[in-house]
Design a protein that fits this description.
six-stranded parallel β-sheet; globular; alpha/beta; TIM Barrel; two-stranded antiparallel ribbon
């Protein structure tokens, strides 16, 4: 499976993988072939679908004896299928993935043909809680509309109210995911021209969702190249700096790495960090400068010290030191919730014996 390959790559390169997604109110149209959708008329779609079933049955009736049949009008069957999906994925990856987008795009409702069952968001969180270790992190992920909702409606916006309702009812919501897609050239142009998504608006939304008391994840970033690679790089750099500076933002995830390889309705945006020929774009270099250089801490001590003190960024540090003329290395983690004082444990065996 492609997901197995991706997780193996993450494990090999010390990348934290995230499962995306358990539950998504996708449209009935996702189950329809393109030729059926082109018919538009519901009666014609039903007739064409029935004909498709008959054709497949005639072709394989003597060779296939087990069939997956989904009644899109039966919410109980949809719920059972959703729970089975959660259990199957949890069983396969429970020891390899520790962060999960449990529900995706539940507050947008832009697709009126969505497949839903009663209280499916809350139930999906509860099913995930039953199937996975309690220390796994569960997120609810929402479209870019969530930013507009808070700027316009503040705490009466439907995504804010949905998350608050889940938390109040005891759902294990460990983080709030906010997408950051600009899927049209005009939309991105308005941002660059200061007509929407101003730094003030973005900060207002982050401050607002932070009031729910959960870490914020910027989960899906698409910044197009419609105004040139330098414009993409400029906005990516400024957005990342704003996200990184906010105390409640815990993670930032770019959506499409390579130009021209996104979903069919996104590929034309060229929202990747590298070109189709795999050469890095200006946006790649800009984020590389921030993440690998500006936001890294390097410190050295010229004289022997018993206790070393420094100010630095959270993250994993590799500490190199000498003892009795021999050099040792040790990795030490400093996080928001970790002890700010760390002791070196990889001391020589003879030293430990001497001071037991």
């Amino acid at each position: 499976m492609q997901s197995d390959t991706a997780i193996a790559f993450c494990e090999k390169n010390s990348i934290i993988p995230k499962g995306h997604t358990f539950s998504w109110p996708i449209s009935v149209s996702h189950f329809m072939p393109a030729w059926a959708l082109d018919l538009k008329n519901p009666d014609l779609i039903e007739a064409a679908t029935n004909r498709n079933i008959r054709d497949i049955a005639d072709r394989y009736r003597d060779r296939i004896k087990i069939w997956d049949v989904l009644d899109l009008k039966n919410p109980d069957l949809i719920e059972a299928a959703s729970n089975r999906n959660i259990r199957d994925i949890a069983e396969r990856y429970r020891d390899r993935i520790k962060i999960w987008d449990v529900v995706n795009e539940a507050a947008d409702y832009r697709d009126k043909g969505s497949i839903l069952y009663d209280d499916y968001v809350y139930k999906a969180f509860k099913e995930a809680e039953r199937c996975l270790p309690y220390d796994d992190k569960f997120l609810i992920n929402e479209t870019t509309a969530a930013w507009y909702q808070y700027v316009r409606n503040e705490q009466t916006g439907r995504f804010f109210l949905l998350v608050k309702n889940l938390i109040d009812r005891g759902a294990k919501v460990d983080g709030i995911g906010l997408q950051f897609h600009f899927f049209s050239d005009k939309e991105f142009g308005d941002v660059l021209d200061g007509k929407t998504f101003t730094p003030r608006d973005m900060t207002k939304a982050l401050d607002g969702y932070a009031k729910l008391g959960r870490p914020l994840h910027i989960t899906e970033i698409t910044i197009p190249t419609s105004r040139g690679e330098e414009a993409q790089a400029y906005f990516a750099k400024q957005a990342y700096r704003l996200f990184f500076s906010h105390p409640s933002v815990e993670a930032i995830t770019w959506w499409n790495m390579r130009d021209g390889q996104a979903a069919s309705n996104e590929a034309h945006l060229n929202g990747g960090l590298i070109r189709d020929d795999l050469t890095p774009k200006a946006s790649y270099r800009a984020l590389e400068q921030l993440i690998a250089k500006d936001w890294q801490t390097n410190v050295s001590f010229d004289k022997p010290v018993k206790n070393a003190h420094f100010e630095g960024f959270y993250g994993m540090y590799e500490v190199s030191y000498k003892y009795n003329g021999k050099e040792y290395k040790q990795k030490v983690w400093f996080g928001k919730k970790s002890d700010k004082s760390q002791s070196l444990t990889s001391v020589p065996t003879d030293w430990r014996k001497r001071f037991r």
